[in-house]
Amino acid sequence: MTKFECACGGLIRVSGEIPNPLEWKIISDGDFDRFQGAVDAEGVYLACTSMFRCPGCGRLWVYWDGFEGSPVCYVPEG
To answer: What's the structural domain count of the chain?
Structure first.
């Protein structure tokens, strides 16, 4: 998968430009706590969950189960 369509009709590219301006990395406080002192950036990167923000409507698409699963969509209030 290289792209998908947001519910608003906007196009979200999962691959291509690096760094991807639509992709965000999130990590739980507990998982982040495992990293102490000097850290391996790749290790932190791999511990993160990928999330994409639609530039049109602001919906967040979170891949909680990695790219093997489907993303969960969160819609901004208001």
So the answer is: 1
